[in-house]
Amino acid sequence: MEGLELAHLDLNLLVIFDLLMTERSVTLAARRLGRAQSAVSYSLARLRETFEDPLFVRTKAGLAPTPRAEALHREVREVLSRLREVVQGQVRFDPARARRTFTVAMTDYVELVLLPVLAQRLAQVAPGVDLEVTASGDDIERQLEEGAVDLAVGVMFYERPGVYTRKLFGESFVCLARAGHPALTERETLSPETFAGLLHVLVAPRGRPGSFVDSALERMGLSRRVALRVQHYLAAPRVVAETDMVLTSPTRLARAHAAGLAVRAFPPPVELPGFFVRAAWHERRQGDSGVSWLRGLLIELGEELDRAS
Predict the structure, then answer these.
(1) Which GO terms describe its molecular function (predicted)?
(2) pLDDT value, residue 208
């Protein structure tokens, strides 16, 4: 790329490069762009020529980026994000006419509770808006900072300069056990001692040790055995339905699972604080009218969920 002038660089190539890094497939990138696969292949050839590097190597799993591509990607995303802010920040976002894809990171719990009503509302008021939902992992704050996601919705966010959060809705806890669990045969609830003596499933999305339950038991001089620790809620209620383990779960999630599984809910035998689900975004998105609109919609839906509970 020696001697390359900015005037000779087609910025659309950077958009295609970003998509190829995300999709790791010429076919999928072409589909996202609404272009022919041959056109994206031609753009990839131009990118290789421009940066004097293969950028991607074909493997059985798809396109694997070279070290040069990995190094370029962070800078390219930064440039594209700033360009989008300049262009979109000058235009009022009209959801009824807009055609845009938002990338939103969510935990599996949030997907189950919020995503159905969000998708329904988008279909009604913003039919041209698409969502790309990604997992909310340990590096979500970095993803927000780098512009990899527009918004994140979850429970815990680490403090980081430039990351803002807003409460969406509150949630409480309930316990789940299988129907016919021997400890609950003739009881509506359990004593703290009996509860602590059972085998427990713990869902720890961000890998943090302990939980509200462990803290509450510790204050009473009790402890429990966590027989199964998982990162997602997807399988936990099914494990409970097939074993004598118990699960302390967000109430809305337990309500959704109880309808299709042979499980029963009972109140926690220990006092547990509720929690709030929050939206998080980076200050770089403050001037983006589209992200501001989506954030407002999430706040509106969160208020509706609170009123319905």
Answers:
(1) DNA binding; DNA-binding transcription factor activity
(2) 60
